[in-house]
Automatic annotation (TrEMBL):
Keywords: NADP, Oxidoreductase. Residues 7-190 form the Ketoreductase domain. This is Short-chain dehydrogenase. Gene3D superfamilies: 6.10.250.840, NAD(P)-binding Rossmann-like Domain. Belongs to the short-chain dehydrogenases/reductases (SDR) family. The keyword NADP applies. Coiled coil: none annotated. It comes from Hyphococcus luteus. GO terms for molecular function: oxidoreductase activity. Pfam families: adh_short (PF00106).
Amino acid sequence: MREIAGRTAFITGGANGIGLGLARALLAEGAKVAIADIRQDSLDAALKTLGSEQVIGLKLDVSSREEFAAAADEAEDRLGPVSLLFNNAGVNLFQTIDESTYDDWDWVLGVNLNGVINGVQTFLPRMKDRGKGGHVVNTGSMAAFLVSPSPGIYTCAKFAVRALSESLRYSLTSHGIGVSLLCPGLVKSNIHASDAIRPQNLEDRGKPVDEAFNAQLAKVHEAGMEPDEVAAKTIEAVRANKFYIFTHPEFKDELKEIFNEILDDFPKGEEAPAHRMVFERGRRENYRRYREASRKAQD
């Protein structure tokens, strides 16, 4: 994806944080941008801040397939065919899995996982039919690799988005559509205030809101990376057709440590029987080819 100018981008969670940073970066590159968000007041404020005739705001609950289809139609009617998709909307629930309810699961997965699925299912058939290429960026997190007791459901969703994105990348190579997984660490954003947009029909919360803890989280997020820096690194990675977009260098040594722990847990001194290796060698070589093809596809 060398040329961004003139293309149309669709960004979920586009009125705050990383989404708003992406909107600014894409407009600066000459793209037309639709920012979608569940909060109308945030959309209004974002549009005023962006101050461009090349951007529109769309109110959208990403967990709704019907709303997603309607928002996609409106974006393309007003700005032209979308070929840059940023599935960025996210919420967080800072509690453990054993403290959670079905409503907690339905809310967090509905936004963080189903929101990505709905974006993919809505826009990819259109991109493929047009044959003009494109790129999809799904916002994961370092929580797609790093696990702690809390936030449990959020981490589960981000692991799933990671797998979804890698599988999708390989299937879209022949269509000239790239896929990237954005894995930021701490970012200056409002995700700590997710409870403010929790839907009333999913209000059964496993653990009461801890206002003091949320206040501390707000202070922590103020120390996060600026969204514009995340956006700049994301645009650079899209141009280079990278799969993983790691924006925060402080996690590299930790990932190395975790990967080494994983390798250490494999049985020592054992070899797989020959009849299994017949299959595994073929699967391994296919996987290598998928990775190589996806890296070369847009060179």
